[in-house]
Amino acid sequence: MKFGKVDNPDHIDFTLPPDHPDTAAVLQKHQQTNPLNIYVGCAKWNRQDLKKFYPRGTKDELAYYSSQFNSIELNATFYRMFDAKQIQNWKEKTPDDFKFFPKINQSISHMRRLINVEQLTEIYCDNIVHFEEKLGMVFLQLHNNFGYKNFDRLATFIENFPKAVPLATEVRHQEWFGDAEIAKAYYQLLEQHQVSNILVDTAGRRDLLHMRLTTPTAFVRYVGANHPDSEYKRLDDWVDHLEKWVDLGLQNIYFFVHQNLEKESPTLSAYFIKKINERLGTQLKAPTVPAGTLF
């Protein structure tokens, strides 16, 4: 992920900001009666990006990836509309407890910018639901220049989005978080429709760490800076923060690790899984990572 990349990450203050005042209230509305769900993964399973992760002779990258992780943040669906047959093929290659978190196609979010996208959205959802019980949550990522003037478009899209398909959103224009009234309108829209508010932890855009949850789900897109001096401390801080949210009523943790150079993503994921297991008493399987990496 190039978004938020900086040339000198050692100059960035990676401290997690305090919670938005309304996050605790959102979490406390939801009585925790079910086991905590935690899904950790990478953004893609491509061998070229995840260099040295796959053992020599691996023939099916998804089958191996899903033996090591319990989820994938599926960015491939952003670039191409996959038909139901392909979705079913991916589903059948993965274990029973595996989940897919596909990104909404760019034709909807970036090309048409949510204008006249009813038919495209229907096609996208009709195909994506073939993940069936392995569909975790789809997410809408909007362009950097999609600002508040487009609020009505976003509201219409969310209001009409199929309620049977769990949805999260990621807005990137600075005014969504820089203006208190705009932020309030956005958060209220998401809360009203039970849409999760994505948090992005990336070096060059610390404003995207708004720490405002709108559902009892923490959907975190963590972007490492390929900077060993900061990565472990950042992940440790996330474990601390997520533990606090769990105590308040958090029900779902969806944590996806990116890198500007993706080859270290499995290594950082393994570290995060180890720490979250230690802290929360969970038993997530940590992926096997090759010797000589960061971990």
From TrEMBL:
The organism's place on the tree of life at top rank: Bacteria
Matches recorded under SUPFAM superfamilies: TM1631-like
InterPro entries in the record: DUF72, UPF0759_sf
Protein name per the record: Uncharacterized conserved protein YecE, DUF72 family
Species, as recorded: Sunxiuqinia elliptica
